[in-house]
Write a structure and sequence with these properties.
The chain has 9 helices and 12 strands. 48% of the residues are buried. The longest helix is centred in the N-terminal third of the chain and has 22 residues, at 71-92. The chain has helices at residues 11-22, 40-50, 71-92, 124-139, 160-168, 187-197, 219-229, 261-264, 273-286; strands spanning 2-6, 26-30, 54-57, 95-101, 144-149, 152-153, 174-177, 181-182, 185-186, 207-210, 217-218, 237-240. The protein has 302 residues and is of the alpha/beta class. Helix 1 (11-22) packs across helix 6, helix 2 runs parallel beside helix 3 and helix 5 crosses helix 7.
Amino acid sequence: MRWLVAGAGGMLGRDTVEELDRRGEDVTGLGRTGLDITRPESVTRAFAAHRPDLVVNCAAYTAVDDAETDEARALLVNGEGPRLLAAACVAHGARLVHVSTDYVFDGAARTPYPEDRPPSPRTAYGRTKLAGERAVRAALPGAAVIVRTAWLYGVHGRNFVRTMLDLETRRDTLDVVDDQRGQPTWSADVAVRIADLGPKVGRGATGVFHATAAGEATWYDLAREVFRLNGADPDRVRPTTGDAFPRPAPRPAYSVLAHGRWGEVGLPPSRDWRTALGQALPLIRKASPDPVSPKESLRETP
């Protein structure tokens, strides 16, 4: 089976290519210069050159705040791009794994969101990601899966965990939001889920799957655990509220996703976020951060 990973320059895309390569799969990873999902000619050229059996779309516009004033551009990447990929999959008889986000929900729940909960996004970013989900499902109802994830951190690129490691060395105390709950998720674990799920797409697996770690935490909880695992005093992290850090796009207060569908396709449940973080942290410490412009608005992660 030939795999093609779009958005392979980003954190999750890189981990996915590495996981598939580790398994000995025939995989090609393309960043935006090799496959711009918003350009029909680029999609056509990539499919003709690589003739994939299974496509994984990790490419996305993920600048949540910028999307509030740049929704047209976000929709081009997050809505039209997946539509073009799905249409190419139809034409070539390929299957598709499309990565999406917790932002398709409103964040007002008090219990984990099941996969079949009707979406109700509150942000431009969430609306554009939902448009992509709908385009994929309309084109490939029996040959695609939507994999929603959230609160990603990893070895590649900048992320919350790497930021906490950096700030631990430079600040005596740190105020971190304690009124937003989610599931800190190692991108390498999501890559494993994608690699496990891919062969089942269209062969018993369709629809939506949630790929986040088990358990739940606030950003404050996560920061404290990073400090603790790094040998620092977690009490140097102090709780605060989201109001202390106003942003253009509202952050979901509750982003915990349920994982019921994995058992339906014979795959095990996700591991706890603390277990994953304990394994990931030494690798993140050792890796050099990738240079990323703070003004970058088109990234290749969910």
